[in-house]
């Protein structure tokens, strides 16, 4: 049993139990794979392995929560109401982090930020932010045309892997006429645009 | 000599003279072509031809102005300071409209908005806004792979042409790692995303 010391009063077994309760089998297994990949990346790039593991494990904890819970959380935690114009794809990170703080007693801002930023990234990212963002994209079961290239880039550089993922995610969204959260462009402008 | 009645105290000859003074030959000729195309679209879609013509003619009036003038204008007209993080590609529309109001005595908000919105569009667009946005993309000298398709769509529907242009402009910017003004995504989410 892995204890998380001062990062939460709960341990990994409790998190696993809560994830099972909130997620279907596929999503639950994805979380385990992102935990594994986040730890691998933390070892590779010399980041805190426990924080990377927790962030990866919990990143999609809120992915299948009902809409009402997010609407309630926006009010309760005084978050930007423009969030309500988007959907679960944005909410489970941006709003989810505060729900996780409350339900799982995770008070570590490094972990919460990594969860907060894992879908739209951010112009300012810690190594843990980058690791979870990338692990979600390249975990072992991911299978899409650019994934091998993404994995290769992630062997060398977290920054380059963030840039590659942002660019390809935006291309995918636009090619498929999918809604995009405008703040994601702040991330793109920071990490992809060459003048930076 | 075309007079603009109550839309400006100046006439077209004066605008032409000022455009020649502010723009190089290529850009000046582009403005004449956008004026022509805007008028054609106004006739086709039953919009105000004079307003479309003025908006098209003046849309790039500020395209080659020095940076200092835009910085000064942001303060003077109390505009969003985040604009200063971008460049002339955004400024000549978003800030340019207020400079045009002052220097060319254009006080018509329909015209000024069309100029303001011609690079990043907007979730809310009048027919004149749409016409200038499209005319800039498909004027007779434009030559890029999608332009024939864009022209064809613009024969039928302003909305579909706006959607096509936004999608392809964003794809172009991302493919080439170019900076994107995040508010452009509000336009994309409105005009391109299928749930709308």
What descriptors fit this protein?
196 residues; homodimer; mainly alpha; Hypothetical protein af1432
Offer a quick outline of the entry:
Chain A has 196 residues and is mostly helical. Helices cover 61% and strands 0% of the residues of chain A.
Describe, in plain words, how this protein is organized in 3D.
The structure is a homodimer. By secondary structure, the first copy, chain A, is mainly α. Chain A has one domain (about 5-190): Hypothetical protein af1432, CATH 1.10.3210.10. In chain A, about 60% of the residues lie in helices and about 0% in strands. Chain A has 11 helices and no strands. The first copy, chain A, has helices spanning about 10-20, 25-45, 50-60, 65-75, 90-95, 95-105, 110-115, 125-140, 145-155, 160-175, 185-190. In chain A, helix 2 (about 25-45) packs antiparallel against helix 3 (about 50-60). The interface between A and B is medium-sized, with 21 and 21 residues.
